[in-house]
Amino acid sequence: MAELIPVAMIGLGQWGPNLLRNLREGGDFQVAALCDRDAGRLERFAPLHPGARLYSTLEEVAADPVIRAVVLATPAGLHEEQAATLLRAGKDVLVEKPLAMTLDGARNLVLLARALGRVLMTGHTFLFNPAVQRVRSIIDSGRLGRVQFISAQRLSLGQVRQDCNALWNLAPHDISILLHWLDAMPTSVVARGLAFHERHEQEDLVMATLEFPDRRMVSLQVSWLNPVKVRAMTVVGSERMLVYDDVDQEKPLMLYDRGLSEVSAPTTDGSFEHFRLVVRPGPEERIDVEKREPLSLEVAHFAECIRTRTEPTGSGDAALRIISVLEACQRSLRGGGVPVVPEPV
Ligand SMILES: NC(=O)c1ccc[n+]([C@@H]2O[C@H](COP(=O)([O-])OP(=O)(O)OC[C@H]3O[C@@H](n4cnc5c(N)ncnc54)[C@H](O)[C@@H]3O)[C@@H](O)[C@H]2O)c1
Description:
Blueprint: E1 5-10, H1 16-25, E2 29-35, H2 39-45, E3 53-55, H3 58-63, E4 69-72, H4 79-88, E5 92-96, H5 103-116, E6 120-123, H6 130-141, E7 147-157, H7 166-182, E8 188-194, E9 205-212, E10 216-223, E11 225-237, E12 241-245, E13 253-256, E14 259-264, E15 275-280, E16 284-286, H8 294-308, H9 317-334
Parallel strand pairs: 1-2, 1-4, 2-3, 4-5, 5-6, 7-10
Antiparallel strand pairs: 7-11, 8-9, 9-10, 11-12, 12-13, 13-16, 14-15
Bound molecules: nicotinamide-adenine-dinucleotide.
């Protein structure tokens, strides 16, 4: 059995405890330290990890020679600086999404990790989601035909962020999935959004249109001001269609053998042949999806990359492409919806 990797968990807010549970239970890590600037959060999770040191600052974690790896689940605006400090201290780092709030910042981190020979992973959890992987294999198999359009909706009531808008908070997930499915960068993006509360300047709602090569188009909607949780993506192919609903435990993936077909319709005066589109109805099929927690797969992948010294899935250039698309959407948003070409990575 491989040696356990001493790890520190920084940030024990809403999300950190999920990562912590997987670190504790996964069998690859030994939780050597917990860190949060909020003493109440430390007190709450310390009893589950009797041997772990408790720190209130990241610098203490960086200076602890026992710790080899760090998982960072602090607010997005802190990621860049904190991850750089930890990499420079010789730690392998799993940083929650988004990796950084600018492409330049993310690129600096990726280059720093490569220069220092450290593992830098971004928590793109959905790339470890068996349903997302299943969709990719269905697309690759050609069952959908040519993918023409994808719509993505990620909506819920809260959690409202102070340090970033709904785009940077929610869309990293959709963009990581879209780039994985379409295996390409958008050629142009347009984004509009609204901040509904005057004194809170962050957009609660963002709607974006992304154009991909070969006449493929994506509609993306993210919001933390919606009465119910929606996590739905529809893929429309030239042959079949598919709906991935991450909220539906029973039927997360449905394939529809439906579409529009061209039929010839002779004109009444017989002058020239005419075509029209008609609905092609067809059966639906529930696609089985392996029931494994994506986060446990993500944490196990981090351990494997630490042991084999390899760049993790969804990290390096892949992580930069996600930030490049986010940044392009943000620039379009600030420009009132002007088309923006994402910077190449
Ligand atoms: N992968 C996913 O599916 C997923 C889901 C939710 C959140 N996230 C990401 O996780 C991160 C955290 O989100 P959250 O909802 O837990 O936020 P949160 O605000 O609930 O928690 C952040 C925690 O970090 C602590 N903290 C802040 N600054 C610190 C510092 N300098 N040193 C030590 N501790 C500090 C806070 O006290 C708090 O406990 C965000 O980047 C978010 O995007 C990812």
